[in-house]
Amino acid sequence: MSLPRRYWDSSAFLAWLLPETDREEDCRSVLRAAEDGELQLVTSALTLTEVIKLKGSPELKRNYEKKIADFFQNDYIILRNVDRFVAFAAQRLVWDQNLSPKDSIHVATALRWRVPVLDTFDDDLISLNGKLPLMWLTLIVRYFKSRSHTCQDS
Questions:
Q1: CA dist 130 → 12, 133, 135, 137, 154 (Å)
Q2: Domains of the chain, first to last
Q3: CA geometry: angle at 40 spanning 51 and 137, to 5°?
Q4: How does DSSP classify residue 2?
Q5: Each residue of 8-40: pLDDT tens digit?
Q6: pTM of the model
Q7: Per DSSP, what are the bridge partners of residue 141?
Q8: In whole angstroms, how large is the CA radius of gyration of the chain?
């Protein structure tokens, strides 16, 4: 039986890495579940770079390099590359949903790998909740405080 998966965009990871005190507890409950083997976190390889300098957030300086590298080595974090499918799907999301290129890569990666829930603190992504139906998936984009870590409702 495969584990439930949640997609974390860069804003979610950055909230934990800084940490952002008003968001840290939201992240902690999901991370505890992942550490306990209850779920997996999926993200784009883009996230490893984007967390360093995410627009509207404090920049992670070079002294965070080891912390970032060590954190993303956790077995419960699955990194997905930007392949041709993801890139073309991201293009369509930029045109059709007016997303930024980086946000579109996160959404396209979640869709490509059929991850049903995208956790984020990004208002532009939250506005997409339920608006991206596909034959096999409706992506649920949620702000952390509105959901539990169990994924039973997705």
A1: 19, 7, 13, 10, 11
A2: 5-146 (3.40.50.1010)
A3: 95
A4: P
A5: 999 999 989 988 888 888 888 899 999 999 999
A6: 0.86
A7: 118
A8: 15
What's the CA gap between 79 and 89, in Å, rounded?
18
CA distance 78 to 72: 9
Distances in Å between the Cα of 21 and the Cα atoms of 27, 35, 56, 76, 126 are: 10, 21, 16, 23, 21
Dump pLDDT digits (tens) for 43-102: 999 999 999 988 888 888 999 899 999 999 999 999 999 999 999 999 999 998 899 999
77 sits in the region (left: phi over 0; alpha: psi -120 to 50; else beta) called beta
Give the 3-state secondary structure of 46-107: HHHHHCCCCCCCCCCCHHHHHHHHHHCCCCCEEEECCCHHHHHHHHHHHHHHCCCHHHHHHH
